[in-house]
Batch of 2 targets.
Target 1
Amino acid sequence: MIVLVRHAYPAVDREVPPSTWHLSAEGRMAAEALCSRLVRETVALPCLVSSPEPKAVQTLAPLGAAQTMEEFREVHRPHSEEGRDWKSRRLAYLSGERHEGWEDPDEVVDRFETGLANARQLAAGRSLVIGTHGMAMTLWLSRTRGLDDPIAFWSGLTMPDAVRIDGDGPERL
């Protein structure tokens, strides 16, 4: 079983890149609650892998130490973009619009797929819990797992959120 976990809510600081943000106090409490629920409902002794971004690593911390893999980081985009109508730009990107300086969506999906192959080897048959990010996860799910409406999916994600990947397609936990 694979569970993708979108990170909990970070302490936003527009002066620094989002890739360096840590969880807020509210985010830490939400991460603890999600991880407790995962242990109770689905995951026993999982292999933990995470994006190297602090907010993703810290979201999985209540489960234990995660090995970081660059392949699960968020979509690369200019830090200067963060203040400019961030939500509509993300929605347009997920709809297929290209933004100058943003990582090509095909490259995001390819690196995510590579990360999954490597993480599966690391898991050696155990359940796999991956700490990641909303756009990267949504792109991968929409291109490889039959996610019909990436905009609705991304818009409906909470911080944190978890999606099980089993057989037919993604299932929100």
Target 2
Amino acid sequence: MKRAVTLWSESGGVGKTTMATNTAAALGRRGADVLVVDLDPQLGSLTDHVGFGDLKTTDDDHLGDVLLDQDRDASDLVVDAGDFDLIPSHEGLANIESEMAARNTSLREFQLRSSLTPLASEYDYFLIDPPATLNVLVDNALVAARDVVIPIELTRKGSVSIDGLEDTLDSMERGFRTFDESFSLGILAVVPNEVGDSNIYREVREELESGGKPVTPFGIRKRDVLKEAWRNQMTVFEFADSAETRDLRPYEKDLLDQFDTVARIVERGSVEAAVDVEVAQ
């Protein structure tokens, strides 16, 4: 499979879905073919964000059916979301763990990867947005992607959560090597999100950097325009382009560059490589 990335944090409310949406849009605007897979059945998921919330309650085949039956074709679920394609979430995913247990599904953590493999030739990048709660959907996202981008709040809680998440990834890696000796999970980037100006932000960033975490040299600021774009079911890029919405204020335009840099991290495979390219330009 071509490069696939899961955006994940065990902490809810850190802007994970907003980051996934706008990173995918940035990649698409850089000329890449991008498929986003929304694994979150809850209200307010990426599918809702980009205007396909009605597909989460349809009686038609959905992502849960594909995960339960490998004879189903994931390509039948793909919808055009503008700058990227989307496999939408569905409320039926909420019961997927019990469904897999009832059917005694073998290698159930590998179902998404198997379903997406036939699509590998059609896309440059796969971005996966699972729920925050650790469950079989998160397992599937991590097995499919292997690389993780972590949005984090620059707070003491956020700093502690990174250590816990690293422990979780290490444990999962050891477990999955039972089935695949070459299996590895890695943190591609830690992206400070909803950043403000207090001293605690600077202190936590310094702690993460001194601990060797791949922290981006920028943080995505807390801006009301992200909420406005969400209400209008747009990415922030679409919001900036739309004649029906207000113009971005000068201090809001940095968001476009920041999401573009996250996209470049996905392209280049590391924070350092992406930042080096940005400096060279």
